[in-house]
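WARN retry 2 of 3 for item q-0093 after timeout on previous attempt; input resubmitted unchanged.
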Amino acid sequence: MVQGDLDKMSENNKNEVAIFEEIRRDLTVNQQLKVPMSYVFGRGTVGNIASFGGNSLAENAVKVDQAMVVCTELQKIWNHSHTQWSWKHINMDNVSPFDNMRQISAELAGKKNALNEAKWRHVESELKLKKLEDELRRGKEDNTIDYWREVEINIKIAKLKEGLSEGMTYIEGAMKDVLALNELYEQLTARISNFSEADLEKAESKNHLRRALAQSIRDVRMTGSITKGEQELMEQIGVNPMKLQKILRSYVAQEEKQETWGIDELYNFINKLTDELIDEHKIDVIRMNLQGFTQDSPEQYSYINKVAKLKNNDGES
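OK item q-0093 returned
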């Protein structure tokens, strides 16, 4: 359909295709990335119908477009999984630095997969967009494209461009998370660094015991006793739950008398008791012997290269 055909159309028909003309013109002239709601719900066959609030659908659509501006601005802040504060205080709340490093590894792996999927979706959308733009350009040059095919292509282009633009908000959010997690990783290497999987295996008894002690202390605070699940975990590590319960009750009673607001005493208690049970009493070794196993983890089944290497002043590991 060329301009002469449009001139011959009735006024009603012109109104029906107004939305397509609007999209086609704005995309080709203004190169907008988004088609406002008011373009779609404020024109054409539904624009003048009665809507809520005593307004027409067209009037409400304009208000929605204005509200969407606020939404877009806010999404620039709340477009990622957690704030940096939450990453540190909530997600990395383990007493063991190895457990926090494991948490960072798991979170980064998830973000890596999400960004990889988004990356290839973006590439595929860009390819579709270029093919449509090329078809549109060649059709105009050769004068072989009819009006409705041009409209159809422009609508597809509008949808792809809007999708690419909207997708960037979430991609940027995932990027924020990756960079925040990497910052936590850099900070944590001051506590643990240059370790292999074999080193991790050697530290696992203490890692699990620290976590179990923290959870058991919460049990004693709440009920005065270590709950069934934590008792089982302590037995799996090699700790006598009832002897531990007696010690933890004593600690909680002292904790109640503490005047300080911080939890440094809690960490000191957990770390000291962990070292005592593993290094002196070797409760984990005894547990393995009872099961018929050795405490050693063969290095040939582990990744032996060192990771989390500290960097020198030149930024090299």
